[in-house]
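Dear colleague,

Thank you for sharing your sequence with our group. We've completed the structure prediction you requested, and as agreed, I am returning the results in plain text so they can be pasted directly into your records. Please verify that the sequence below matches your submission; if there's any discrepancy, let me know and we will rerun it promptly.
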Amino acid sequence: MKTLAYVRHGKKDKRFKNSDSITPKCLRNIKINGILGVNELLPSAKRLVIHLGTEWKRTRQVARAFQKYAESKGYKVALILPRSKRLGSVAMFTRIGTPEYLKADKIKGGLHPLHRVTAISDATYFERLQREILQAVKDIFTCLEDGDLCVTVGHTPLIELATVQIDATLYDIALKELEGVVITGDVNNMKIAKVIQQ
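Please find the predicted structure tokens below.
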């Protein structure tokens, strides 16, 4: 069985306009304490794989901080997978990050605002986004060996979008910083083993 811990990035550093970095405090905390819900997966993994997330720096920062945590506990990283624009790109968020979406997201996070705004205004794009994000998750699974634990970092609502395609009963989850899902199985037989919420 392969395992993917797919978590949302940590708290953005808002001291600087348009910052793409995580707060130093958050990064220190991950390096020292890891990520709740992911740490306990380490002992049963045959190999640890780190996926560098999306094209945004903050996802790589969190992935690398977790790598430091794991290494400090004696776990060696066997493989580092390159970042993937399919898990989240500037183009994706430019397209879905409309004022209508941002307003709806403040009311209720997760998939509700994405589905309400994007699916209604551009159903074709919404369907393509669904296929693209699920394929990105499958691409990661393809790179893994049986017994591997892979940790990747992404963005909401794309994590929720991938999740609901694997398990439609999880439509209502809305993830906060450092929350996510644990996906197990293989590329053609994935299931959500756990929702990580603080």
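Summary note from our side: The longest strand covers residues 189-196.

Kind regards,
the structure core
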